[in-house]
């Protein structure tokens, strides 16, 4: 049909229905509605269709199978219910309708009432008491995560762990996190992790139990009494990470530690590798200072021994010179290694500053870890070799000391003042003298002196 120039433009029925549907769905978020069920139909598809009415009006409702399977009761015609739904329009018939996501008996809220009752019961039993909670490990090596294998919460936790401490081993114990099967699966997973720990099949430092956010009914598995008691009975520390920061579940109250989100749980249990690097750098600096101090002390001791030891002087000087050379080579090798790695670190830092660090941060972090690991290995191996060489030289020096001579049966005589006696004429009959042997000392008295004239030598 043609329109005249004065006729207003017309739209098709389909377009009008589509625009009305868009307007309704964009204007309304989830709404809670209370009323009485009528005309309930449950076709073979598993979806539910019914009307919700009160004294003044009624509205068509559709509850699809994925939503109604999570309910813990089956509604009937005439039931007074409270439901959460999205406002929409069924375009094919132009019917205003509600897409129901959750449904419960009307009243104060059955789930909230159950929550408060269980909370009071477990609190009276002392399951929330701080003294029964286990401490969390300071530096865990192996974490068990009990959550859905396909949920975003798992990926969030893995991302945080990879960023903060990629050395932590993670074992996933996959479970459904909502629906009627969730609570038994959570209990079984917690028990299984403890059995593995007890038998030695696994060595967990802590468990994370949780999921992403959702409504009270979505999170209800973590409000079940069986799950709360499984967490309380766990010999492993349990961190509860359920929903968002504003979501509080029974599992949060019973767990040894509550994290406001799954990501926060991963952050709570993972030391920051940047802190570790700083600590390693501080330890490295302290080790360097200790090595230098020990080398200085060894040098002073060597100088002291060199001054006291008169024989064999030539060999001692050669060994001392060799020791000094080794000390210098060790210091130069260490300085060279530090300079080389510092230059390499400077180059990497300069390249990082020239580029956007976000796409390459993980890769550069791995390279830096590898460089630090090789540097520590090189330093460790170098120190071991030089310590072994220093031990051999010290043993050789010890074999040339006067104490070794005493071990072969000689003795060192001293007068009463402790001065070493080298000539018989330095004593007189009746003088008290001391003799130092390889093991112990003797107190002697001179009974005769045989002097050797200079010409008799």
TrEMBL record:
It is found in: Cytoplasm. InterPro entries: Exonuc_VII_L (IPR003753), Exonuc_VII_lsu_C (IPR020579), OB-fold_nuc-bd_dom (IPR025824). It catalyses: Exonucleolytic cleavage in either 5'- to 3'- or 3'- to 5'-direction to yield nucleoside 5'-phosphates. Its main location: cytoplasm. Residues 12-103 form the OB-fold nucleic acid binding domain. Keywords: Cytoplasm, Exonuclease, Hydrolase, Nuclease. Residues 127-443 form the Exonuclease VII large subunit C-terminal domain. Its EC number is 3.1.11.6. GO terms for molecular function: exodeoxyribonuclease VII activity; nucleic acid binding. Pfam families: Exonuc_VII_L, tRNA_anti_2. One of its GO terms (biological process) is DNA catabolic process. GO terms for cellular component: cytoplasm; exodeoxyribonuclease VII complex. Belongs to the XseA family. PANTHER family: EXODEOXYRIBONUCLEASE 7 LARGE SUBUNIT. Heterooligomer composed of large and small subunits. Bidirectionally degrades single-stranded DNA into large acid-insoluble oligonucleotides, which are then degraded further into small acid-soluble oligonucleotides. NCBIfam families: xseA. HAMAP family: Exonuc_7_L. This is Exodeoxyribonuclease 7 large subunit.
């Amino acid at each position: 049909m043609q329109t005249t120039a004065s006729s207003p433009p017309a739209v098709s029925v389909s377009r009008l229905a589509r625009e009305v549907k868009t307007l309704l769905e964009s204007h309304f978020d989830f709404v809670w509605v209370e009323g009485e069920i009528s005309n309930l139909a449950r076709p073979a598809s598993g979806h539910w269709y019914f009307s919700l009415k009160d004294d003044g009006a009624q509205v068509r409702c559709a509850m699809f199978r994925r939503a109604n399977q999570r309910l813990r009761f089956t509604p009937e015609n005439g039931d007074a219910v409270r439901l959460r739904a999205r406002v929409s329009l069924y375009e094919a018939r132009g019917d205003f309708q509600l897409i129901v996501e959750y449904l419960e008996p009307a009243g104060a809220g059955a789930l909230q009432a159950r929550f408060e009752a269980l909370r009071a019961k477990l609190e009276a039993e002392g399951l929330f008491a701080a003294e029964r909670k286990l401490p969390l490990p300071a530096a865990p090596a192996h974490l068990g995560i009990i959550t859905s294998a396909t949920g975003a919460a798992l990926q969030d936790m893995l991302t945080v762990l990879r960023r903060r401490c990629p050395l932590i081993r993670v074992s996933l114990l996959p479970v459904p996190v909502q629906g009627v099967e969730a609570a038994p699966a959570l209990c079984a997973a917690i028990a299984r992790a403890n059995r593995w720990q007890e038998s030695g099949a696994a060595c967990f430092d802590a468990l994370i139990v949780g999921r992403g956010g959702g409504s009270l009914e979505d999170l209800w598995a973590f409000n079940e009494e069986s799950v709360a008691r499984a967490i309380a009975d766990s010999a492993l520390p349990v961190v509860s990470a359920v929903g968002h920061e504003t979501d509080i579940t029974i599992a949060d109250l019973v767990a040894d530690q509550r994290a406001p989100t799954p990501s926060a749980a991963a952050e709570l249990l993972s030391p920051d590798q940047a802190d570790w690097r700083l600590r390693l750098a501080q330890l490295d600096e302290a080790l360097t200072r200790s090595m230098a101090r020990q080398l200085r002390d060894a040098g002073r001791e060597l100088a002291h021994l060199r001054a006291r030891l008169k024989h064999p002087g030539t060999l001692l000087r050669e060994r001392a010179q060799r020791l000094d050379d080794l000390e210098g080579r060790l210091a130069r090798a260490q300085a060279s290694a530090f300079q080389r790695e510092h230059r390499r670190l400077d180059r990497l830092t300069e390249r990082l500053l020239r580029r956007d660090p976000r796409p390459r941060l993980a890769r550069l972090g791995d390279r830096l870890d590898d460089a630090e690991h090789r540097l520590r290995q090189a330093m460790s191996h170098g120190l071991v070799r030089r310590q072994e060489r220093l031990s051999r030289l010290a043993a050789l020096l010890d074999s040339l000391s006067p104490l070794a001579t005493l071990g072969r049966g000689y003795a060192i005589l001293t007068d009463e003042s402790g001065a070493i006696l080298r000539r018989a004429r330095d004593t007189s009959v009746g003088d008290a003298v001391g003799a130092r042997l390889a093991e112990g000392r003797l107190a002697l008295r001179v009974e005769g002196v045989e002097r050797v004239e200079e010409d008799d030598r």
